[in-house]
Every structure is written in C-alpha cells, then in structure tokens.
C-alpha cells in the first residue's frame, strides 16, 4: 500500500490545538483538569475512545463530552489509568522493608499517604507489610484518588481470584513473612481483603491537580501517577508533597519515575536511588 | 528523502536478543541520531536488555525513564512492563496503560508517538518477531512522512512481525546490512 505523506503537513500541530480545546472543555464543564497532563498519554487515550465510538475528530468528541455526561464518565475512566497489582515491583517492597521500616519504627505515631491509590492494591500491600513489621497499630493510612468509582472499589477491597497467583508470587519475592492467603478470604471467583487490614485505612477523595496540602505525613507513596503529568504539573505536585511531609519524611515514587529531571530535586535526598525512595531535607 | 533524520525507532520481539546487536554494533562511533528500542520482554524482567546491548555498542545505552531528554547518539531501551512514548518536544514519557497486542511495552505505542514527535525526520525499523505489533506504528510513520525499514524475513528468526509490517516498507534489507545502511544514510545526509 502506498501512503503519500502530505507536504508541509500541519496535522500534528492541528491535532494539538483540538486536543487542548477538548481538555479546556472538560475543565470548564466538569472541573477535571487534564490540561497539564502528559500530552502523548492524553492523545493516546483520546484516540482510543475516538476509534471505539467511531467519531471522526476531537471536536466531534468535545461536543459529545459537553452534552453527554455519561459519555464523559466513560472517557474519565480512559483518562485515569488504574492498572496495578499487589506488591507491584517486589524489589521496591523489599527495599521499603530494609531501608524505610527501621526509620519508621522510631516514631511513636505514623501518618502515611497513598496519593493516587487507584483500586487499593498497593495500599493493602503496604498495610500487610506494616502489619508484618509490627508498626500498623501506631499508623493511620490515608488513601486518596480523584476517581470516586475507583475509590469505592479500593474501599471494598475485592479482587478477582485469578490474580492471586501473581499477587502471591509478588508477595513472596517482596520478602513476605507469612502466608499470603491469610490476608484475604476467597468467595467463589473473588477474594475479599481482611477487615482488620482495612481498619487503619481512610479512603477519601483528593485531586492532586486541584486540591491542596494533606498535612504532616511521615511517608507519601505516589507510584506511577506522576508519569501522566507534564513537567510543570509534576513540579507543582512534588512541591505539594514536600509541604505535606514532616522534615525528614519519605517520598516513594514508581521505579521508572525520578526527581532527577525535576526542579524539586534539591528539596529531597535519595534513600534508595534504584527504588526511587527519597527523604525530605530538614 | 529530502530532510535530515533525527531519530530511529526499532521494534522487535522473538529473536531480538541477537538481531539487535547485529543492527547496532556496526553503527559508527559518532552516529548522530537518537535511537529508541522496544523489545518485547516478560513483565518481570530487570534491566538485562540495557546491560546486554552495552556489550555490543560504541554508543551510550540507557534504560528509558520518565521525562528523560533524548540526546543524539544515544540509545534508549523501553523498560519491561511500561509503554514508552515520545512527547512532541522529544522528551520520553512512560505509561502503564493496558497492553497493546498483549505487549507492554508495545511497538505501536512508541512508533505512533515518535511519528508525531519527529514526523519526516524519523526512521522506523521492524525486526524479527512473532506477532503483528508495530504494523500500525510503521503505517503512522509513513503518514507523517518518515522512512520505514523492515528486516528481510529470509533472515528473521520469526517472520510474522516483519511480514506484517512489510506492506509499509520503503526498504527491505537482510539483517546484516541494516547497520551499514543506516551509517550510509546519515553520512549522505550530513555531507
């Protein structure tokens, strides 16, 4: 098949203008602010919905977004990525056990924030780890997300049973000290996370883009959320984290995220460079 | 081909472990293009690919990280279990959105975003592989005016991927000629 490139093609530039208009429309209409999200990510998610709903262009989509809230809610799920696992990146959890827990054991009371907690898998993973390290009793965990639907899933703590094989393997690789099956109850094709793990967790709405400081945290986990933000928004959120941490508090990012390319880098010192664990400078 | 190339994207799966060194090792020391690579890997592998390719290259080989700038003469490898994308400004972006063609990283995701970023200054290369990831990607590269190179299936360990992409190929070459072809291409450009 011969595809002739158009000479002096403005498609990329024009697409960008249309996509900016879509994001502006979403913000004005529904208050969700995706205007400073990573453009490549947003474009791919919009393209995905565009082809599923057989629309020709972004402006047609914008019209539908504005006039059809149901369609917007569908798109909202496309735009927020909720792919995760329990003990995702086992090496990270191992590193938390080795380099973070000894510090946390020295505090009389702990506040932990999971920012962008999605369906809760990593929140429960950390609760299990803190239980095994005997610090859960002095800990209050806050788990937040901007998507109410996914937040209610997190609160339920119900996951498909077929995922347990992978989760168990992750748990063991992460240095789990007990039997993973002891942390949930299987019921037909789903499992329910133990009530005792939920008691220490407060699931609540918070939007990193539009909401403010969440105070006095000892640790903030924000893994694989910042990758969806552009550099400007990333810097803004990192400052929010800085202000939400006590002096010497810890910030844990995703394995492929880094402070290296951010202007906030001087505010933190690395605890584990390979696992992206940082500490707020005093 | 009228313009100077700035970047190369390479996609491969089955057979890529030996095909990639064959392409990269002949590249001259001062090769002036940015190179981005997706090799399908198990979600749970480590940075093995980066270490593996360093043994065969004069060029710098790096594991891609989010918000990393791309430099000329540098090779970036998509990390296991993440999609690698290029922003229109040429910085790298990662995502854990669902797999495409059962793959994360997916070749289509890299190629389609790179096509927007570099347009007619991009070369896309499909090597050996056993699924059709990459075909939409090279189609997009053609739409944006870029150059598409596909490995000759007679030299491919797995045929499906290059066979599927070949309908969009500007050039089909045996594995052992690709590296020198790229050297000549950039030398002709700069002279």
Task: Record the SSE blueprint.
The complex is a heterodimer of chains A (282) and B (191).
Chain A: H1 11-30, H2 39-52, H3 58-67, H4 69-79, H5 90-104, E1 110-115, H6 121-132, E2 139-145, H7 148-156, E3 158-160, H8 164-173, E4 184-187, E5 190-193, H9 195-198, E6 201-205, E7 217-222, H10 231-244, E8 245-253, E9 268-272, E10 277-280
Parallel strand pairs in A: 1-2, 1-7, 2-6, 7-8
Antiparallel strand pairs in A: 3-5, 4-5, 8-10, 9-10
Helix pairs in contact in A: 1-3, 3-4
Chain B: E1 7-12, H1 16-24, E2 34-39, H2 48-54, E3 60-63, E4 74-77, E5 83-86, E6 92-95, H3 107-118, E7 122-126, H4 135-143, E8 147-151, H5 160-165, E9 171-173, H6 175-190
Helix pairs in contact in B: 1-6, 3-4
Keywords:
heterodimer, A: 282 residues, alpha/beta, 7-stranded mixed β-sheet, 3-stranded antiparallel β-sheet, B: 191 residues, 7-stranded parallel β-sheet, two-stranded antiparallel ribbon
Task: Outline the structure in words.
The complex is a heterodimer of chains A (282) and B (191). Chain A has 282 residues and is an alpha/beta fold. Chain A is 42% helix and 19% strand. Chain B has six helices and nine strands. A seven-stranded parallel beta sheet of chain B has the order 3-4-2-1-7-8-9, sandwiched between helices. A two-stranded antiparallel ribbon of chain B has the order 5-6. Chain B has 191 residues and is an alpha/beta fold. In chain B, helix 1 (16-24) packs parallel to helix 6 and helix 3 packs parallel to helix 4. Chain B has helices spanning 16-24, 48-54, 107-118, 135-143, 160-165, 175-190, and strands spanning 7-12, 34-39, 60-63, 74-77, 83-86, 92-95, 122-126, 147-151, 171-173. Chain A binds chain B through residues 1, 3, 5-6, 9, 11-12, 15-16, 38-41, 43-45, 81, 83-84, 224, 226-228, 231, 234, 254-258, 260-262, and chain B through 63-69, 79, 82, 85-88, 91, 93-98, 109, 112-113, 116, 119-120, 139, 142-146, 167-168.
């Amino acid at each position: 098949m011969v595809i002739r490139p158009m000479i002096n093609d403005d498609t990329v530039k024009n697409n960008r203008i249309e996509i900016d208009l879509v994001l502006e429309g979403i913000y004005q209409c529904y208050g969700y602010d995706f205007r400073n999200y990573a453009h490549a990510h947003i474009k791919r998610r919009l393209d995905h919905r565009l082809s599923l709903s057989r629309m020709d262009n972004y402006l047609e989509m914008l019209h539908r977004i504005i006039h059809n809230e149901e369609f917007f809610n569908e798109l909202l799920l496309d735009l927020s990525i909720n792919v995760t696992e329990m003990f995702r990146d086992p090496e990270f959890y191992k590193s938390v056990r080795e380099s973070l827990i000894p510090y946390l054991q020295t505090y009389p009371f702990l506040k932990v924030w999971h920012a962008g907690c999605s369906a809760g898998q990593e929140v429960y993973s950390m609760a299990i780890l803190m239980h095994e390290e005997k610090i859960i009793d002095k800990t209050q965990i806050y788990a937040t997300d901007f998507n109410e639907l996914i937040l209610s899933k997190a609160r339920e703590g119900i996951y498909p049973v077929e995922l347990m094989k992978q989760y168990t393997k992750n748990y063991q690789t992460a240095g789990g000290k007990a039997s993973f099956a002891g942390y949930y109850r299987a019921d037909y094709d789903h499992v329910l996370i133990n009530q005792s793990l939920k008691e220490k967790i407060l699931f609540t709405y918070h939007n990193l883009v539009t909401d403010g400081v969440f105070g006095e945290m000892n640790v903030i986990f924000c893994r694989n959320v910042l990758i969806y933000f552009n550099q400007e928004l990333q810097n803004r959120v990192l400052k929010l984290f800085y202000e939400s941490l006590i002096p010497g508090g810890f910030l844990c990012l995703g394995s492929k995220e880094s402070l290296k390319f951010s202007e906030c880098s001087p505010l933190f010192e690395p605890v584990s460079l390979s696992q992206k664990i940082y500490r707020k400078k005093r | 081909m009228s313009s100077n190339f700035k970047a190369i994207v390479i996609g491969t799966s089955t057979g890529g472990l030996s095909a990639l060194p064959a392409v990269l090792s002949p590249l001259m020391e001062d090769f002036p293009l940015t190179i981005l690579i997706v090799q399908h890997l198990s979600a749970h592998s480590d940075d093995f690919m980066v270490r593996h390719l360093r043994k065969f290259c004069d060029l710098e080989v790096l594991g891609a990280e989010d918000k990393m700038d791309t430099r000329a003469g540098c090779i970036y490898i998509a990390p296991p279990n993440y999609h690698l994308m290029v922003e229109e400004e040429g910085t790298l972006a990662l995502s854990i959105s669902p797999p495409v063609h059962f793959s994360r990283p997916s070749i289509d995701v890299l190629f389609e975003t790179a096509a927007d970023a570099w347009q007619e200054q991009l070369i896309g290369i499909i090597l050996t592989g056993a699924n059709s990831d990459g075909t939409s990607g090279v189609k997009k590269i053609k739409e944006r005016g870029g150059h598409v190179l596909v490995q000759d299936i007679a030299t491919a360990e797995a045929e499906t991927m290059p066979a599927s992409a070949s309908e969009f190929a500007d050039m089909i070459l045996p594995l052992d000629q690709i590296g020198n072809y790229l050297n000549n291409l950039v030398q002709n450009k700069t002279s």
